[in-house]
Every structure is written in structure tokens, then in C-alpha cells.
What we know:
Elements: E1 5-16, E2 24-35, E3 39-43, H1 50-58, E4 65-70, E5 73-74, H2 80-83, E6 87-90, H3 104-112, H4 126-137, H5 156-168, E7 174-178, H6 186-203, E8 207-210, H7 214-219, E9 223-228, E10 231-237, H8 238-242, H9 246-257, H10 264-268
Helix pairs in contact: 3-5, 5-6
Amino acid sequence: xxxxxxxxxxxxxxxxxxxxxxxxxxxxxxxxxxxxxxxxxxxxxxxxxxxxxxxxxxxxxxxxxxxxxxxxxxxxxxxxxxxxxxxxxxxxxxxxxxxxxxxxxxxxxxxxxxxxxxxxxxxxxxxxxxxxxxxxxxxxxxxxxxxxxxxxxxxxxxxxxxxxxxxxxxxxxxxxxxxxxxxxxxxxxxxxxxxxxxxxxxxxxxxxxxxxxxxxxxxxxxxxxxxxxxxxxxxxxxxxxxxxxxxxxxxxxxxxxxxxxxxxxxxxx
Length: 269
């Protein structure tokens, strides 16, 4: 892999239920390279292949053909648990990514040891609790005074903010955000996105964020790709990305797809 490239995907193909009447091609020879420090937003209608792409990178399933490299390492056939050391991930469901029956401090302690050899450690050291307190204070949600609170008692937005913190504590090579604000109310979603921008910029994290919200895809990140029928249809960055509007993006999509239809959920968002 070239210097500065964090992710390199080549000719990635994935068909579900192959050889049956229910066969569905989710990724159709997709090529993608992401440079160090890029924050890429991914947009596309239902069935465009967005989640399949993220799951392929994370190792949830193996592609039928093609290759995936992360930080110069070919992870195409690497098990999900082994490639986790390269990745941080925040899911759409705030219930994922944390252990609800454990304290905030305990969840953060587990996240801080990600990638290390598993060992049983009783409790959380006082020095670590102070470190976690300072980390939580950066969220400006008052959670620094609730280290002993069970995560399951928190709101969806608070849990998602903690999950975001846990996913980025060890500065992963690649941060995957899988519609991580879709289940939140608009005000809370805006706060989590604001925190996302701050954490990504502060830690210079290479990031791939899936969203159904066109305005969020335009507003956040420094590069935008739109997927359609398992491939990348539009790829804009720099000045072109900064000058994008929803209307312009829809116009680009219509031209590139030959009049393809963007589903209602994408337009309404």
C-alpha cells in the first residue's frame, strides 16, 4: 500500500444468496482508497451497499472476490476479532458497543485494554478513574461525575457519546461510524455529531461515516461518496465538497445514474 493510505479496497464483490432466485449483489467490483486523516461520509439509498461495505471492512463477512488492506495489512481473510485491533466502530443502536450492567468506568477500562492480551483485573485503579473523569469531561454531558453509574441507566445520546469515546480511546487506524445518530432525536443527534467532529479532528482519525442524511453527509467530513447498486457513483472532496448543496448532490446523482431513483428516506432526511 502507498504511504499515507489507511484503507485500500480493490474490486470488492459480494452477492448474498448466490445461485438462487433471491440472489442480491450488494457490492459490485467496488474500489476505494482512503488517505490518512480523511473523514469520508457515505450516502446512498437502501440497498446501495453501504452497510455491506462497512461489514466487509470490519470482517463480519468475507467478500466473494477482491481485497481489503488496512494500514498496509491485507485483512481480506483475517477473522473479525483479529482485525478489531485496527478498527473503532460505533453502531446505529445505542445499546450496542457498551455493557449496560457495568459502570461507565468499567466500560472505559475494557475499551482502554482493547488489543492487549486478555487478563482479569479486579476493579478500576484510582489513577485510571481520574483519567476517565478527564476524558468524560470533554463530552460536556456531566458524565465525569457519574463514573459509578451503570451504563444501562443512561439516555441513548449519553450511551452513544460514551461508545464514541470508547471506540476512539486507543486511536484506531480506521473509525467506522454506522449511522451512529440515526436512532437519536434531532437535538441529540446534532450533539453527537458535534462530538464526532471534535474527537476526529483532535485525534486526526481516519473515518468512514455512513449516513442517510444528505445534509449531514455534506456538512461533516472532508470527502463524500455516494453509493448506488453496490458501487461508488459520486466521489467529491476539497472545494467541490465544501460547495455542495442537497440540490447539487441530487443533480449529480441523476446525471451519474442515468436517472436512477433515490429513495424517499434519503430525500426526506
